[in-house]
């Protein structure tokens, strides 16, 4: 009986689906932007095989719907046997090359090569994933037929299929959205909230009254959250900066308002402004409005360098808007960051405008990842033209970023999508690991905008249209941190990039979505127009941050 069931189960598969599914499986083993483990590779390959099977199944259904000639049963059995052999050869061949393809990414990122891509483990995980997805698809089909058969007595057959399909979609979508997706998000949000409340044992409340969270502060230490406390308690002090430069330095001022510090973005923004005024932030020569990442994290790799460059004569202010990781916030609550960023900018910029131009600090905005997208949305150009702030540094801008998309699409002909040039370079410039900001003949205008982005960053270069269209950034010349073996495949590349999106921060520092301090330095030099640093001193500062990570 078991043997008969296995035979029936085997013959229930579509021949066309198996062939196309195998091709999709093979293509999924090729590299994209981020190195993969055998677990993630197995899940990806299983999803790709299921997607290919779905394409093949649809083509087979269309053939039958159009009433085209069918294969005889005997020929079909022989064809399936040949197809199995073909699928096995293709699958094993590509599995054998998987390690080589993964090493093509690892080599450009300076990682140790792998000896094996664990082909048996990848194959087993892919098979389990494939079976689960096909089983879900068949449950969908059963639901569709169950509904349509009961409607046949009341409506025409094809109308019942349409209604059945609609109901099945609603049932499965409701289950995924209401049970899995929303419940999962509640669990993650609760987990992140509890994690955010944890007090690292080596982080103590500051005693300096100029520190946010101190006894003199308007913001309670316990309300800062884990990320806020870390941001306030770490970073270079005047002694650290002075020791490096050999000159007297000031203590950088950092203001942070946690999500628990106010019930609305406007409340938190007003509190941040009051705290910034209390500590004397508007008396420094430079002031940076920071939009954090989704979790509220302010990357020390991004803010520490500018504090060194300004010899500590700088203040910064940030407000938390979420507990979720940036890629999750980007998917489910992208508006939260923009609302908080706009509220904070409105408060700080509004007060800054009232100060005498001769004595007020130069004003800059900065954001990394989702913080870059939200920082872009914190103000409109027409709102600040009468009295503009001095510049913006946006790092790893997510793919939906409106201004970034418009500028990249309108780039100068002949410049690559991963490192575009726009106009005369007086307003916006792009750079990567290697400084590309010194454009011959270009002169900065009154407002300087710099985008720092890595060609291997899937948060920036994820493209939903990769489902059916090759993204521009894949076309030559490619970025130096992108595998030369990367190829575009319909559907499969979209699935690969979707996985890369979730794994963007697993790359080594200086690649993917993990930005290195030494790559920030040239950007901050240009945006804030720092004077008095010789090329040798700049290189020494870069090396200082490289050494600090060792």
Detail the topology: elements first, then pairings.
Elements: H1 2-11, H2 15-28, H3 38-65, H4 73-108, H5 119-151, H6 157-197, H7 225-233, H8 238-245, E1 253-257, H9 265-279, E2 286-291, H10 300-309, E3 314-319, H11 326-332, H12 334-353, E4 362-368, H13 370-376, H14 381-384, E5 391-395, H15 402-409, E6 428-431, E7 448-452, H16 458-461, H17 492-502, H18 517-528, H19 535-548
Parallel strand pairs: 1-3, 2-3, 2-4, 4-5, 5-7, 6-7
Helix pairs in contact: 2-3, 2-4, 2-17, 3-5, 3-17, 5-6, 9-12, 10-18, 12-13, 18-19
What would you say this structure looks like, in words?
It is elongated, with a radius of gyration of 28 Å. The chain has a seven-stranded parallel β-sheet, sandwiched between helices. Mean pLDDT is 86; it is low at 183-195. It has helices at 2-11, 15-28, 38-65, 73-108, 119-151, 157-197, 225-233, 238-245, 265-279, 300-309, 326-332, 334-353, 370-376, 381-384, 402-409, 458-461, 492-502, 517-528, 535-548; strands spanning 253-257, 286-291, 314-319, 362-368, 391-395, 428-431, 448-452. Helix 18 runs antiparallel to helix 19 (535-548). The chain is α/β, with parallel strands linked by helices.
